[in-house]
Amino acid sequence: MAYRTRVLVVANRTADSEGLAHALSERTDATDAAFTLLVPATHRGPDRPQGREVARTQLAAGLKRFRDAGLEVDGAVGDPDPIVAVSEVWKPGQFDEVIVSTLEGDASRWLEYDLPHRIAKLTDCQVQHVVPSRVERELARKSLRRPLRQRPKRSLGPFAGPA
Question: pTM for this one?
Answer without folding.
Answer: 0.81
